TrEMBL record:
Residues 5-236 form the ABC transporter domain. It comes from the Bacteria. Belongs to the ABC transporter superfamily. InterPro entries: AAA+_ATPase, ABC_transporter-like_ATP-bd, ABC_transporter-like_CS, Metal_Ion_Import_ABC, P-loop_NTPase. It comes from Orrella marina. Residues 254-296 are annotated as: Disordered. GO terms for molecular function: ATP binding; ATP hydrolysis activity. The keyword Membrane applies. Keywords: ATP-binding, Cell membrane, Membrane, Nucleotide-binding, Transport. This is ABC transporter. The lineage of its organism: Bacteria, Pseudomonadati, Pseudomonadota, Betaproteobacteria, Burkholderiales.
């Protein structure tokens, strides 16, 4: 069960202002990719679009699977905020939510699932925490619990939005270990990050975004001064009153993401009508099966 994600001309706008412009490329099956870029670059917006929580204005997102399984199953961890503190949930219940797609929201926590939860909590260093209330946990412990939930979810694609925000070095190192484990399992993992050294050390691929795609490929080719400066410079030109696509991307050789010609579009003419999910069995020509398409 493994999956990749293809972006074709992905464009997202908020109230007519484009936050992400014409991004095309591909997250290969089993790849481990960091999405980086300055504040406001559109990173969370792009990740949310892949998770199905943001509507596309233009373009499409296709999920491709190399197996017959339900390949589009995707786990998404938004920026830390995911717990509703009005409900006194126990750690066990939060981690069990990872299995909702298998057991349903009122499903029983079976003995088998309890074993999985115990193993997941052990993997994130929280063995024995099952009965603790989540709103009594520290920020780092809560993030460990949310990673345990992702482990139980067992999805072939995992999207993480700034997973290490506000975490100490030990927690960060432990959760990076979980990500490496997923990568070794052959899952497709995508994380929005800010720490360039961490990206260099742990993430083989990088997508550098500054509303438009600046570069996408092997990290050592993307995290170079010229491209980083270009991303930083783009930020200075970002004005809410300038909703036009401008410069083309710098093409990279041997990148996993393709480059894409830019069109001179007025995005005000491309209002979203809501995300549309299209189930599809169409092959993409290299032995993979398209399992889902997100389009405007
Ligand atoms: N719900 C929203 N409504 C309107 N505009 C939004 C909304 N969410 C994000 N934006 C705008 O879209 C642009 C991209 O935001 P996004 O959060 O995707 O950037 P980011 O790269 O994740 O930034 P950061 O690194 O600061 O988290 C920003 O200009 C932001 O103000």
């Amino acid at each position: 069960m493994s999956c990749g994600i293809e972006l074709e001309d992905v464009t997202l706008a908020y109230r007519g202002h484009p936050a992400v412009h014409h991004v095309s490329g591909r997250f290969d099956t089993g790849s481990l990719t960091a999405i980086i870029g300055p504040n406001g670059a559109g990173k969370s917006t792009l990740l949310g679009a892949m998770a199905g929580t943001r509507k596309l204005t233009q373009g499409s997102i296709r999920f491709v699977s190399t197996s017959d399984g339900p390949g589009e199953d995707l786990a998404y961890l938004a920026q830390l905020s995911g717990i509703n503190h009005d409900f006194p949930l126990r750690v066990l219940e939060v981690v069990a939510m990872g299995a909702w797609n298998r057991i349903g929201s009122f499903g029983e926590v079976t003995a088998e699932l309890e074993i999985q939860i115990d193993a997941a909590l052990t993997q994130v260093g929280l063995q024995g925490f099952e009965d603790r209330l989540v709103d009594e946990l520290s920020v780092g412990q809560l993030q460990r619990v949310l990673f345990a939930r992702l482990i139980v979810q067992d999805a072939p694609m995992i999207l993480l939005d700034e997973p290490f925000n506000a975490l100490d070095a030990q927690t960060t190192q432990d959760l990076l270990g979980v990500i490496n484990h997923w990568h070794r399992d052959g899952r497709t993992v995508i994380a929005v990050l800010h720490d360039l050294q961490m990206v260099r050390d742990f993430f083989p691929n990088t997508l550098l975004l500054a509303r438009e795609l600046i570069a996408w490929g092997p990290t050592r080719e993307v995290l170079v001064p010229a491209l980083l400066q270009r991303a930083q410079g783009s930020r200075l030109a970002w004005q809410e009153a300038a909703p036009w696509c401008r410069e083309p991307q710098i093409p990279l050789d041997a990148v996993s993401g393709s480059t894409h010609d830019h069109h001179q579009h007025d995005h005000h003419s491309h209002h979203s009508h809501g995300a549309q999910l299209v189930e599809s069995g169409e092959g993409n020509g290299d032995g993979q099966r398209v399992t889902k398409v997100i389009a405007p």
